[in-house]
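Me: I hope this is not a bother. Any chance you could explain this protein sequence and its structure tokens? It all follows right here:
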Amino acid sequence: MSFRLAAYAVCIENGRVLLARHIPPMGETNWTLPGGRVEHAEDPFDTVVREVAEETGCEAEVERLLGVDSRVIPAAERNVPGGPEHHNVGIFYQVRITGGRLRPEPNGETADPTWTPIPGVAGLRRSSLVDIGLALARTLPPTGHVPPVPIGGAIRH
């Protein structure tokens, strides 16, 4: 089983959420939250600020910790053919954009950072991380945990 610890930004302003289009080397594109892998010895708090800058061109300030999501993705449902099942632990932060200009990630796997009206998210092919992040931001659960999002239709791992 592979493992990944990641930090994700939930940035909501004026009824819109900041999303970026993930373009994997293999598989189909989908919309996701800015964020990514926590590097060795890196604080996830610093990771989310770094990832927002890398993927969107914007400067971000963390406002609060929203919660943690832990999921195991079966091997058959992964974008990597023949790969093992995968355990992803995502730490979600509420962030505020403080500067910069939206631009695609240079030489990366994300493009088209976009302010998306929240009601329009349901019609997008997207990562389940988007729904988890929005649920955490909407409900602010004291446990920092929301139920898993069912995968299928427009929602992917």
About this structure: The CA atoms of residues 64 and 89 lie 18 Å apart. The longest strand covers residues 58-73. The two ends are 16 Å apart (CA to CA).
